[in-house]
C-alpha cells in the first residue's frame, strides 16, 4: 500500500481539481542549472477566474488558493515528491498526541512585526475554534487540538490520537498578528511572512506582489538573495485558454494551466510543464430531498448508462487516465497503488430498468415522469474548462435515450458558489473537489450541510461511510487508519455518492521560468531563466 502524507490546505471547492506528484513533469529548480538563472524581472502567472475573497481562513476556490500559496507560509513545506521540508519551523517531533516544532529565529511579517511561536500557536488555536469556521477546521484541526508557546518552541496537543498531527497542523497557512486581530482586513489584503508582499490589487484583473529584501527562512535555505528569484510576481486573471497559450508562446506569461486543445501547440513548441492530476470527469450529485438524485436508484441508473470509453477522451481532451482515488492532492494521504473499488460496465438496459423501479415511467412521448413530474436533470460544468461542454453534450445525448430531460448549464466562479452553497439549484455535472487526504474528503461527504455552516453541499448521508470515517479518525496506527479510509471511500463509490468517470494530467506550462507546483505554485521555487 502506498501511504503518503497529506497537504490538507486547499481541499478546494469546485470546477478544477488539481494534483499529482507521481505524474509530475519538469518542476521547479529541477529544470536547468544555476548558470541558467537570472535574478529580477516580473513573473506572471495566469488564473482562469478572479480569486475573490483573499482571506486564507475562508478560501475555497482554487484561484484563491493560488493567491494564498503566493502569499502565506506554513511550518513545513511539502515538495512534489512528498518530502517534508523545514520552512517556518526548523524541526519537529511527534508521538501521536503531541507535536513539537522549533520556530526559526528572525522571521518577520510583511508589516515589520515579528512572527514567533506564540503567533503560530494563536493561528492554530484560531483554526481549532469552531466559531471561526475556517477551512482548516474539521479537516486539519478541530477543538480537540490546542497549541502553546514557550520561547521558540511550539507545542501542539491533541486530546485524541492522531497519526498525522504534525503534518496536519504543519501545513496550515500562517497569518501574522495584525491579520489575526482583524481578519476582515484579509479579504482584500494580506498579512503574512511570505517572500513576496502584496502591493497592488485590481480585482478581476491583476494582483501584484513584490519581493521583500529581508527574507531568510525559506525552504532549502531560500533567502531574498537566492539567484533566479523575480523581483515581482503578477497574478493575472485570463479566463480564455487559447489566450493563455498565446501569451505563453510569446513570453508574456511565465506560467499557466492549459488543459484543452491548445496543449498540442505548447508541447510542439517544447515548453516544459509542472504536471498535476485533475479529476476533470468527476461527477457529484445533489442528494437534497426533492431532487432526483436523492434516490440512489436514479444515481445508479444514470451513471450506469454512461459510456466511459466514449466520454473520457472528450472530457479529458485525449489526456485521460483512470481514477485511482478520490484523494487527488499531492502528496496523497492513504492512496493505494490501485483503487479499492471498481466502476460498473455500461448497461443502458439495466439503467432503464432501474429508472422504472424508481417509479420514473416512460410516457408516449418517450419522456420519463413520476406523479406527473418530468425527470429533469440540471447538469452544470465549468465554463472555463474547454472540454466540459462537449462532454456534457455526450451525457445529455445518452440520458435523452433513457427519456431524461437534461438541461446543461455553464458556470462561472460566482455561479459555483451560488448554486452549490446558496440556491442548491443543480443536480449533477462535472464537479470536483480536490482533497489531499481522507479527513479533508470527509468534510464534504460526512460533514454538515451548507445550511448548517458546513461543506457537504451534496447533502450526502451515507451511514456506512460515516461509521468508517469515525472509526478511522480514532485509529492510532497510520497504516490501519489508511486501510479503513480506503474502505470508506469504497462505500462512497458503491452507493454512487460520487462517480469518478476519469482523471487527466493537467500541466502548468513554464515559459521563461521554472518552478515547483506540488499543488499550487510555490513562490520560493521560482527561478527566472536567461
From TrEMBL:
SUPFAM superfamilies the record matches: Periplasmic binding protein-like II (SSF53850)
Ranges where the Solute-binding protein family domain occurs: 84-447
UniProt keyword Translocase, yes or no: no
InterPro entries to which the protein is assigned, alphabetical: Peptide/Ni-bd (IPR030678), SBP_5 (IPR039424), SBP_5_dom (IPR000914)
Protein name as catalogued: ABC transporter substrate-binding protein
Family of this protein: Belongs to the bacterial solute-binding protein 5 family.
Signal sequence residues: 1-21
UniProt xrefs under Pfam families: SBP_bac_5
Originating organism: Microbacterium horticulturae
Amino acid at each position: 500500500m502506498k501511504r503518503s502524507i497529506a497537504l490538507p490546505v486547499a481541499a478546494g471547492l469546485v470546477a478544477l481539481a488539481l494534483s499529482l506528484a507521481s505524474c509530475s513533469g519538469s518542476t521547479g529548480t529541477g529544470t536547468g542549472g544555476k548558470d541558467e538563472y537570472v535574478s529580477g524581472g516580473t513573473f506572471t502567472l495566469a488564473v482562469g477566474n478572479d480569486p475573490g475573497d483573499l482571506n486564507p481562513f475562508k478560501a475555497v476556490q482554487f484561484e484563491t488558493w493560488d493567491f494564498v500559496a503566493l502569499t502565506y507560509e506554513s511550518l513545513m513545506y511539502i515538495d512534489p515528491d512528498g518530502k517534508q521540508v523545514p520552512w517556518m519551523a526548523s524541526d519537529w517531533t511527534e508521538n501521536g498526541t503531541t507535536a513539537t516544532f522549533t520556530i526559526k529565529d528572525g522571521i518577520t511579517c510583511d508589516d515589520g512585526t515579528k512572527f514567533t511561536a506564540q503567533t503560530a500557536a494563536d493561528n492554530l488555536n484560531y483554526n481549532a475554534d469552531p466559531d471561526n469556521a475556517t477551512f482548516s477546521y474539521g479537516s486539519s484541526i478541530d477543538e480537540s487540538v490546542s497549541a502553546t508557546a514557550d520561547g521558540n518552541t511550539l507545542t501542539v496537543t491533541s486530546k485524541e490520537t492522531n497519526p498525522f498531527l504534525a503534518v496536519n497542523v504543519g501545513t496550515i497557512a500562517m497569518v501574522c498578528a495584525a491579520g489575526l486581530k482583524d481578519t476582515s482586513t484579509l479579504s482584500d489584503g494580506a498579512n503574512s511572512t511570505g517572500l513576496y508582499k502584496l502591493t497592488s490589487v485590481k480585482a478581476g484583473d491583476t494582483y501584484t506582489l513584490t519581493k521583500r529584501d529581508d527574507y531568510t527562512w525559506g525552504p532549502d535555505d531560500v533567502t531574498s538573495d537566492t539567484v533566479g528569484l523575480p523581483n515581482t510576481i503578477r497574478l493575472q486573471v485570463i479566463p480564455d485558454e487559447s489566450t493563455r497559450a498565446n501569451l505563453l508562446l510569446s513570453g508574456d506569461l511565465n506560467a499557466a494551466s492549459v488543459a484543452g486543445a491548445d496543449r498540442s501547440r505548447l508541447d510542439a513548441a517544447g515548453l516544459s510543464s509542472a504536471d498535476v492530476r485533475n479529476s476533470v470527469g468527476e461527477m457529484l450529485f445533489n442528494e437534497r430531498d426533492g431532487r432526483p438524485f436523492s434516490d440512489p436508484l436514479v444515481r445508479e441508473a444514470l451513471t450506469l448508462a454512461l459510456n466511459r470509453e466514449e466520454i473520457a477522451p472528450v472530457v479529458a481532451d485525449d489526456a485521460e487516465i483512470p481514477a485511482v482515488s478520490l484523494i487527488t492532492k499531492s502528496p496523497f494521504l492513504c492512496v493505494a497503488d490501485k483503487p479499492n473499488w471498481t466502476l460498473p460496465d455500461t448497461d443502458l438496459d439495466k439503467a432503464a430498468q432501474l429508472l422504472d423501479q424508481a417509479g420514473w415511467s416512460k410516457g408516449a412521448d418517450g419522456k420519463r415522469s413520476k406523479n406527473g413530474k418530468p425527470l429533469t436533470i440540471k447538469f452544470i460544468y465549468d465554463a472555463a474548462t474547454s472540454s466540459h461542454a462537449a462532454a456534457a453534450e455526450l451525457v445529455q445525448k445518452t440520458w435523452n435515450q433513457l427519456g431524461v430531460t437534461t438541461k446543461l448549464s455553464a458556470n462561472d466562479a460566482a455561479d459555483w458558489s451560488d448554486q452549490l452553497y446558496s440556491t442548491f439549484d443543480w443536480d449533477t455535472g462535472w464537479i470536483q473537489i480536490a482533497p489531499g487526504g481522507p479527513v479533508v474528503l470527509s468534510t464534504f461527504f460526512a460533514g454538515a450541510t451548507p445550511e448548517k455552516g458546513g461543506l457537504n453541499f451534496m447533502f450526502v448521508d451515507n451511514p456506512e461511510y460515516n461509521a468508517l470515517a469515525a472509526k478511522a479518525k480514532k485509529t492510532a496506527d497510520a497504516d490501519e487508519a489508511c486501510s479503513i479510509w480506503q474502505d470508506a471511500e469504497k462505500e462512497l463509490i458503491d452507493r454512487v455518492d460520487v462517480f469518478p468517470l476519469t482523471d487527466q494530467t493537467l500541466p502548468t506550462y513554464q515559459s521563461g521560468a521554472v518552478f515547483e507546483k506540488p499543488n499550487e505554485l510555490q513562490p520560493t521555487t521560482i527561478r527566472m531563466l536567461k
